[in-house]
Amino acid sequence: MDAFYVSVELQSHPELRGLPVVVSGTGPRAVVTTASYEARKFGVGSAIPASRARRLCPDAVFLPPDFLAYRARSRDVMDVVRAQVDVLEVVGLDEAYMDLSEFERPRAAGRRIKAAVTERTGLACSLGIGPNKLVAKVASDADKPDGFLMLSAAEACARFAGHSPRLVPGIGPKTVERLAARGITTLAQLGGLPDQRLAEWFGDRLGPHMGRLARFEDERVLDTDRVRKSESKETTFDRDLVGLSALEPELERLAMGLAADLTEHGRSGRTVGIKVRLDDFSTHTRARTLPAPVSDIEAIFSVARDLLRTLDPPRPVRLLGVRVAGMEGTAVPVAVGDAAQLDLGV
DNA sequence: TCTGGGGTCCTAGGACCC
DNA sequence: TCTGGGGTCCTAGGACCC
């Protein structure tokens, strides 16, 4: 979906159409979640500090995120798609992969699906088609907004040969930096490197994997029922907290919220962990695995508190989090007819 | 008035077992 | 006089994604 959260907001605030609109949190440490294309012209993009966005574009309209609304609209969108295609892998609220190989004319099918989404939901989207997930994803990104692009792997290689490796999902800022330090700045260069060199630089598995990505080789199949492996609650404080006596009540609040979510969904896990980000932005995690899965506030909080006391943060703390991992296959019995709702929520 | 929240996956090292 | 190889589980950190 194109600028999904903003697009949903514009449906309830049509008077804002054409204006720079930014969805972001409200606190002093908030970041931008989504910016409208009008706001992007000013350099406002996802993940930049809201304070900076305000300076870059003082006239922008800032809205707090309404995730309930986004989830509901997401469900609408995925329902439209699901009505047209059998194999669907939903990735987050605003993105999905579909298998068009069931159609004799995939391009026509893609056109139809894209049109149906916009017609039925009023929301714009971009669609990319390719022989694998990687090409499809890059193609859909390359033509945004309101895009439609079909590429073969060879076409993708040729078209993006001179682009930065950053174009490929999975190659982030750190990897781009490490590549640049070795003189590699384009996908063509990366794709041309021998596996042995890549293995030396980035490890036996990761290195050659990056080379394949750069050549748009991708064997991944669609995963239509992803099972959640961990669940967490974390919060960044408006101002850093100092000392266990200030932190423990916050930890208990987080544990309470996490336990409530876990219980509501019938999930539990054997590993309880905490996450602490200090004022120097260093992040520290601690975890303990229990003999049996837990989901109740007492168990989660007592382990988390113990871990926090042992860590005893040596500096002011800006973020605190609690996590439960090692989820058992605690499938909740679902009534027949709920199947369509299952994929999004879990 | 730098840097959210909720996730996944990978790596590396240690403990432990056969 | 000197110590293999393989496997699993666990922890911590980090890169990355939406």
Task: List strands and helices in order, with pairings.
Layout: H1 4-12, E1 21-24, E2 32-35, H2 37-40, H3 50-56, E3 61-63, H4 67-82, E4 88-90, E5 96-98, H5 106-121, E6 127-129, H6 133-142, E7 148-150, H7 153-160, H8 173-180, H9 187-191, H10 195-202, H11 206-214, E8 230-241, H12 244-265, E9 269-278, E10 283-294, H13 297-311, E11 317-327, H14 339-345
Parallel strand pairs: 1-3, 6-7
Antiparallel strand pairs: 1-2, 4-5, 8-11, 9-10, 9-11
Helix pairs in contact: 4-5, 10-11, 12-13
The protein binds a DNA duplex (18 and 18 nucleotides) through residues 24-25, 27-33, 46-52, 55, 91-95, 169-175, 203, 205-206, 226, 228-236, 271, 273, 281, 283-289, 319, 321.
Can you give a write-up of this model?
By secondary structure, the protein is of the alpha+beta class. 42% of the residues lie in helices and 20% in strands. The chain has 14 helices and 11 strands. The strands form 4 sheets. The protein has a 4-stranded antiparallel beta sheet, with helices on one face. A hairpin with a 5-residue loop joins strand 4 and strand 5. Helix 12 (244-265) runs antiparallel to helix 13 (297-311). The chain is globular and about 60 Å long. The structure holds a DNA duplex (18 and 18 nucleotides).
Rounded to an integer in angstroms, the radius of gyration calculated over CA atoms is: 23 Å
Order of helix and strand elements from N to C terminus = HEEHHEHEEHEHEHHHHHEHEEHEH
Give the low-confidence spans: 330-346
* Discrete helix count: 14
Order of strands across the biggest sheet?
8-11-9-10
Mean pLDDT: 93
Helix content: 40-55%
Sheet with most strands: 4 strands, antiparallel
Shape designation: globular
How many beta strands in the DSSP annotation? 11
Strand fraction equals 15-25%
Q: Could you say which structural class the secondary elements and strand pairing correspond to?
A: alpha+beta
**How far is the first residue's CA from the last residue's CA?**
20 Å
